Amino acid sequence: MLKIGELAALASVSRDTLRFYEKHGLITPGERNDAGYRLYSETDVHRISFIMGAKEVGFTLNEIHQLLELEVTKDEKSCHDIKQFVDAKISIVNQRLAEIKRIKKSLQTLSSACCGGDEPATHCTILEALSEQTN
Amino acid sequence: MLKIGELAALASVSRDTLRFYEKHGLITPGERNDAGYRLYSETDVHRISFIMGAKEVGFTLNEIHQLLELEVTKDEKSCHDIKQFVDAKISIVNQRLAEIKRIKKSLQTLSSACCGGDEPATHCTILEALSEQTN
DNA sequence: ATAAACCCTGGAGTACAGTCTAAGGTCAAT
DNA sequence: ATTGACCTTAGACTGTACTCCAGGGTTTAT
């Protein structure tokens, strides 16, 4: 079992952030010791890793909460309900994926158009790179 | 040339958002008419599309500003400088790409583990899906 | 045994990204 | 010529996601 500072270090977040996430129902330590210290399990490590990952790709804490809530509500919901919810999220993820690929392509076009030398970069612009793409 | 409401409708943002972006140096209409109305060009349409796309994949307005500023500062900077900056951004984009693929995989594992029927979804959890992955 | 390093709660403060309101000017249609 | 839909600014307000602080208790190392 990890204390809050240990999990915080592991996940590269602050203690305050973990307590903030707890207040908003994203992650609750399974136990507390006699002094009231939070004690986090292995599962909590996975959980915070999922949260950080989802956050990084643009899910809000609210959306992440919904995703994680699937775990809590699983017994009350049918497979059908969950499949529908998850498939809706997958389609959002696919949109994000397409968008990030578009951005990457723009940046790569820009980078490769750039000779990398010392001359002024008169023709290096994101917008030019974007407009050269057939999207 | 488009008026603010027209560009707003095109980009699915509010007029206020466009003015807010302007205040923060992201997009400035090339012209104003006699009454002081903002008039946006074709380039501005591309620009707002880039902004929305970058935002969607998790860039902050500040980061987007930096990306777009390449255009403005191009003459003062060498190709070398710009290439370095852009390549750094590409590596951030690659991280985001990897992360969103991880999320997508979790969701897909979850979805396909789900029979889709009417029974309670006892084994449908994001965390189970995550822990089944070899990452 | 005592200081440093950790933990607790509650609440205030901050940065970012809008969003809304007030008070007024402009434009197009009836 | 006047109504309604648009535009202007400045500034107040909101929601999200932290971040910090005060005032206290606990644990660990010397």
Description:
2 copies of one chain form a homodimer. The first copy, chain A, has 135 residues and is mainly alpha-helical. Chain A has a domain at 4-76: Multidrug-efflux Transporter Regulator, Chain: A, Domain 2. Chain A is 64% helix and 3% strand. Chain A contains 6 helices and 2 strands. A two-stranded antiparallel sheet of chain A has the order 1-2. In chain A, strand 1 (31-32) and strand 2 (38-39) form a beta hairpin. Chain A is flat. Chains A and B meet through helix 3, helix 4, helix 5 and helix 6 of A and helix 3, helix 4, helix 5 and helix 6 of B. The structure holds a DNA duplex (30 and 30 nucleotides).
Short description:
Chain A has 135 residues and is mostly helical.
Q: Could you tell me how far the N terminus lies from the C terminus of chain A, measured between alpha carbons in angstroms?
A: 50 Å
Rounded to the nearest angstrom, the radius of gyration of chain A is: 21 Å
As laid out across the biggest beta sheet of chain A, the strand order is 1-2
CATH class of the domain at 4-76 in chain A reads Mainly Alpha
Apparent shape of chain A: flat
> Tally the helices of chain A: what do you get?
6
Note the beta-strand portion of chain A: under 5%
Largest sheet geometry of chain A: 2 strands, antiparallel
SSE string of chain A: HHEEHHHH
Q: What does the oligomeric state look like here?
A: homodimer
Overall pLDDT confidence of chain A: 83
Segments of chain A where pLDDT lies below 50 for 5+ residues? none
Number of strands of chain A: 2
Helix/strand class of chain A? mainly alpha
From the coordinates shown, what is the CATH architecture of the domain at 4-76 in chain A?
Answer: Orthogonal Bundle
What fraction, in percent, of the residue positions of chain A are helical?
Answer: 55-70%
The CATH topology label of the domain at 4-76 in chain A is Multidrug-efflux Transporter Regulator, Chain: A, Domain 2
User: Biggest interface and which pair forms it?
Assistant: A-B, 61 and 61 residues
